[in-house]
């Protein structure tokens, strides 16, 4: 079975859904708005496209998914009004792993379109929506088919648990107790994955196309600094290890592969 | 709320799902295979496309959905092998109303691709899949973006319950007890809907593109002949009317609008 059917954001819009628990990711989307606005403005002034294909990679399902799209369309519509151009035909591609809750995105599209039309005020051009299932660590779009690629808070998810980290005992990610080979294994896996990502996107973007990527990072070189990224993995590992001790779920200490694969 | 979120095939793959209860529709898909094969063969010989965009409108969710697509790809691959051409880039668009279970289609794509690759034997070109939510009684695809449109057992679903059929008492569709204005109202609604359908598709198809539509029909002119189409609506109406009498669900006799809107 494809890993994307197992590891994905929690669907629906209930209390434990990603849609209701993605405030932090929503914050990143808000903070990066000026960068996206600048990128799409520059792209429009360079190309004056009549048809604009936008892809959100790792779109998940919830308010953040549609916020980015509405944001980009609003900027383009404003530019069109300023320049007295007719607005382009929009093609919006929502991409995520095959286990993502695309049904939930699709069900919210009618309200979204109505709200967007209200905000734009003038009659906007046609807007077509597509769900695109598949890992962005592979080709998911035809050659030269996208003008603008966006991805936020998704590229920190690797394509798989790195090889050779069996000695990372009782952890489910890098931790201050992890041996140095574990840190290197994660770093190497990220390098491989990110190279594949860039290679794929280079084939999918039209010439002169544009990409805005946001991913969490650290302010220092210590990959185990809990202040910047590893805290919740340590917390989760501690809980899982506690369950091992108390209810004997596993017969031996947990590691990444047992948790994620 | 969009009607497509309420009226759609039953999702999932459980006992009551459309996926498990679409043998009849699957039969139609099998019977029309020669027509599709001929159409795609003719299209290929005319255009020798390097990129082939196929849309299945009203695709629902289940084995029939993927059967049609696999069928078309197999024909094109065989032609390519015969003519010693490299196979085209496939873009497959699954369209249905926004309440359709697209998640279920997407989850089955990995197995589907593996099986297809096994059957084709030679290495086929890239194949990209897209879910497209929205009623086919409106524009759902960009201008001139499709080469081949397929729709089977979907166009008998009208965009809405026709106006002016309040005198069709105790029925939920045309029945032998229906007044003649009801028959005319359904006929007019179908004419309007089918015209819109054709107008939209004409804008979405590339020049020289092709369309294969299958829909249930009658062998005589009597629209109430239960042998050809109305039997299950009469049965359903009888059950609903029985429930009205027994448990007082409705305070007055049912009609279409109460059932479907």
From TrEMBL, chains A, B:
InterPro entries: MeTrfase_7, SAM-dependent_MTases_sf. The keyword Transferase applies. GO terms for biological process: methylation. Gene3D superfamilies: Vaccinia Virus protein VP39. It comes from the Eukaryota. One of its GO terms (molecular function) is methyltransferase activity. Keywords: Methyltransferase, Transferase. The keyword Signal does not apply. Pfam families: Methyltransf_7 (PF03492). This is Salicylic acid carboxyl methyltransferase. The lineage of its organism: Eukaryota, Viridiplantae, Streptophyta, Embryophyta, Tracheophyta. The gene is 11424347.
